[in-house]
Write the structure tokens for this entry.
Amino acid sequence: MPATSMDQLVSLCKRRGFIFQNADIYGGMQGLYDYGPLGVELKNNVKAAWWRSMVYERDDIEGLDAAILTNRKVLHYSGHEDTFADPMTDCRKCKGRFRADHIKDGKCPNCGSTDLTEPRPFNLMFKTTVGPIDNAENIAYLRPETAQAIFTQFRNVVDSTSRKLPFGIAQIGKSFRNEITPRNFIFRVREFEHMEMEYFVKPGEDEQWHKYWIENRVKWWEDQGLRRDRFRLYEQQPDELAHYAKACYDIEYQFPHGMEELEGIANRRDYDLGNHTKGQEEFKLEAHCHENHESTQKLCMKDEQTGEAFIPFVIEPSVGLDRAVLALLTEAYTEEDLGNGNSRIVLKLKKHLAPIKVAVIPLKKNNEQIMAKCHEIKKNLLKLGIGRVALENTGNIGKAYRRHDEVGTPICITVDFETIEQQPESVTIRDRDTMEQHRVNIADLPAYLREYFNN
């Protein structure tokens, strides 16, 4: 099978209602996309799978959903105001603007000119003001990551849950970065969703937990359907590390445009909690605090044996949800030659990720008895809680199968004349991947589908 191209994915996403260009009727906005009827289902299923693995299946991680608007002091003490920047350069000939670290051979990507300005830092955060007066005192930011709210709420989570180390706080939410050159469809955008978890550990135990979470995240991606030979681990070099990081490994995936970062697993050491802590008098944390620090929370833990206070180290698995969706679509997209000049596009998503779990299809769309039975079956299947069940009322069974192959629906149920004429009532079950069909009694459908989706 040839490698999936970005053009194939973009075409599929628009044609089948996964992803649309934002404000398309007005020419769109670069780096902004809207998720359509099936895209929002896929995205919600990815979020549910991540949340289930991080929070529900573990006993050491809590959840959080924090505000997007961020107090300026938070991003000042986190270092983002001073360091969260990309090098930017302009082409004097074509007036294009680019990230300087993406320029090859000193030439403009647009026109090939070498007449470029000297690189200068460009802060990526979106700045706004809160309240009616536009002045420096009312400046706030749209958060560039979800992590900082986790750090600033650390004490509240500990106090309300009585958590002991090691433990984590997970969050899924919107982040905003004013990228100089958004590119490669939804890979690099200005508004995206983050799935981040901060795992707090004792100093000295951080390296072993860092290794643990690297292995954990690799296994999770394999469980979502990514083949191991399509992604790799990359250790960031010292000059590549973020200002807060002691070490960081990237899980890189073979996207249509090349091998690039899918998820980062960073050792953020005690940088964030230390910078947000004032409690130097009570806990004698002079090495971690600033004289003019304005935070009132003491983001520390006490050693249960010695009673000595310390600031935990943090291991952070962080993935952009949009990149996750792009990787999963890339992996699942398949073009199959069926012989005799026939072919099909099939999206071989894992069952738990499929936007539509079951499609109920009438053999004849305007037949009252068949349609009544379709509605009855759909209503009963929704009670199973397996996800979205769709009624496909197009009147062409072949086209309906092809459409649901293309959007990744694992199971199609066809209601035909035999269903309403014979006893016991039965329907045709069709499998997406094998295209095999067989009859199942309607009374046995719930047990059949429970086993199928729980398998």
Summary: Residues 278-296 have pLDDT under 50 and may be disordered. The chain has 14 helices and 24 strands. The longest helix spans residues 37-56. The longest strand covers residues 258-269.
